[in-house]
Write a structure and sequence with these properties.
With 200 residues, this protein is an alpha+beta fold. It has a single domain, classed as 4-Layer Sandwich (Phosphatase 2c, domain 1), CATH 3.60.40.10. 20% of the residues lie in helices and 34% in strands. The chain is built from three helices and eleven strands; from the N terminus they run βββααβββββββαβ. The strands form two sheets. Strands 2, 3, 4, 5, 8 and 9 form a six-stranded mixed beta sheet that branches. A five-stranded antiparallel beta sheet has the order 1-11-10-6-7, covered by helices on one side. The longest helix has 17 residues. The radius of gyration is 16 Å and the shape is globular.
Length: 200
């Protein structure tokens, strides 16, 4: 059974051949790593910085998220750098650890609104991975079957979060958010992942 069902929508800034916004959804025995990455600026140099970050995250996904982000920082020195948000999900224990550097927005929508906060966001620290890394602090949250994670880069207006539902199909949600909230003049990426492999 898949541990997550996800959808991605992307927009490339007009006049550019490639998007500087990249994503990662990667599973192994220990859990699932989910990330949205925005290379600084746009075009090929931004895309190449974002791809380095994807490769580092994928190669080191067994490490704790803070050391993973520090490793990205070291590998990205000399590039334009990136901003990113990432989450590691441990399905066996029903826990998610997440953090962000820069302005890639993250929202967790709870499938069961009766249990307190319906919507939660990670603490975003100002900085750029590869040039200016802030003090890092990860948040750890309990998660359950059906909870849905949304990440959006800064080509998407921040008020997208008012329209979210944990019940919308992830690909449909990603397409809809990009269509309704994309600003149209910057690379944009929306990643929506619903947790399906956690015992209800």
């Amino acid at each position: 059974m898949p541990l997550v069902e996800y959808g991605v929508a992307k927009f490339v800034r007009p006049g550019q051949g490639e998007s500087g916004d990249q994503h990662l959804v990667c599973c192994n025995q220990s859990g699932i790593l989910i990330a949205a990455i925005d290379g600084i600026g746009h075009g090929e140099e931004a895309a190449s910085a974002a791809k380095v970050a994807v490769a580092v995250l994928k190669a080191g996904m067994d490490e704790p998220v803070i050391s993973l982000l520090q490793r990205c920082h070291e590998e990205l020195r000399g590039t334009r750098g990136v901003v990113l948000s990432l989450a590691f999900i441990d399905p066996e224990h029903g826990m998610m650890t997440w953090l962000g550097v820069g302005n890639v927005q993250g929202v967790l929508m709870r499938s069961d609104a009766k249990k307190g906060n319906v919507q939660e966001s990670p603490l975003l620290r100002a900085g750029v991975v590869g040039s200016q890394l802030p003090a890092l602090q990860a948040t750890v949250l309990p998660i359950v079957h059906g909870d849905t994670l949304f990440f959006a880069t800064d080509g998407v207006r921040s008020d997208f979060s008012v329209t979210l539902s944990a019940r919308e199909n992830p690909q449909r949600a990603a397409d809809r958010i990009l269509e309704q909230y994309g600003n149209g003049n910057d690379d944009a990426l929306v990643l929506v992942a619903r947790l399906t492999g956690i015992d209800p």
